[in-house]
Design goal:
Number of strands: 27
Oligomer: single chain
Length: about 525
Amino acid sequence: MSTDPKPIALPVTAVTCLEDRAHVERTAVLDLEAGVQRLRLGPVSALAVDRTLHAEPVSGHRATVLDVRIVRDWTPRAPAPPTEDDSALGHRAHALEEERLAVERRRDRLRARLDLLGRLAADLLREIGEGAGYGEAEGPRWNRELDRVDAERDTYGEELRVAEARLTALDAELSAVRRAMDLAEEEPAELTAHVELTVEAPVAGPVRMRLSHLTPCALWRPAYRAVLDGDSLTLETDAVVWQRTGEDWSDVRLTLSTARSALATDPPRLAEDRLTLKDRTAAERRTIDVELREEEIATLGPAPVLGLPGVDDGGEARVLHSPAPVSVPSDGRAHRVPLSAFTTAARSEYACSPELSPLVTQVVRCDNRSGHALLAGPVDLVRGSGFTGRGTLDFTAPGAAVELAFGSRDDHRVVRHTEESRDTTGLTQRTVVTRTVRLHLSRFSPPGEEGERVIALRERIPVSEVSAVEVRLRKEACSPAPDAVDDEGIVRWDVPLPPGGRRTVTLVYELTATAKVTGI
């Protein structure tokens, strides 16, 4: 069994990002020999979960995985250029090292030049000796050449002495800076991890091996961008990915999943639930105690997921895929990954619920044409004037209606006034409570604006759950008459407002209770 000391690169090729962790897949081509051998692969993230490590050859390749494990050790950090977060000593040491390297290169060039000038002077003296032997007398030229060579040797020699003196000073200052850094900034060792893979191959040859494991410190959340252009709406779906696993994801196939692998899947235990009946007391027969309470109108759909803001998959695991390879560095920052986009016709209305808010809001509705479920998340709202704010998109199934609020209108004002009167009839002792709600709408338009604007005005009336209490809408006293009243007690008017127009809407309803009723 042989162990290669040099690790084989094991890059990340695919990532499935979950709500609080990531499933990482790696692929490498191994040049195996016949027999059993142990290979060292990596490095990999030291945060990898050991019990989730799995290795197998890709289909079509013959090899048997006998053992696979992660081996971690502490190693000094590799030298790197200083960043903005480093200290002044670190920046000074880096500058001294850069200057020292430049001076060393200049010293080497000066030494090579002086060596060349020395050989040139030797060749010149040999030429003078040979010329004198042959009876040639060129004293002026020989003197001129010797003076030029000696002058250059003196010049470059002085530069070499300056460079060597500067190197000595740099070495002394760099040693002092490093001693100060050792005392003040001890760099901790870095935890690194490698994969030790023991395989058995029947024949020698390349084998493509796939390894996978879970790693923490990675998560994703959905985010959206809605652009309203007239009667069309463009909705872009993005995934915001954070990861600090210790290694960068470069050009990986990214999959986003809402699966919660950390949650237990055991069904709850069944417990006995006994229901008993008892007779009412005389006081309970004489009176009926009622109370007025607020109830949220619920619709069919997913239950809210506690503890996971922005993640709502309706109780069913959803899987989304990035259309192109992506790169996510291990810096712990948010990185947006485009997933899908669609443009569809939009229906817009101006709605107001004065009991909740006096603002008139532009509400845009369209159908989900993305081909996948839209998970709950923040949405950036953009219309003709540019970015208008940020809202929230609820969970929306494919093909279902999407509802977005694009902010309030500053040129509209709604004022709400309420009145209440109470009366008791003489014979039946029934209590009648009459409530009147007046809504004053105003539209302040700039000069030159034309066309009416329809405001969808909504108010509510109580809904009785007992026969002893009756709620009646007095349509004859309402002005104007409501356009619609649903089973939840929501009363709606579609009020047209011209530029600079004003309207008053009146709602009147009665609450009638028998003499046995208390609490109203």
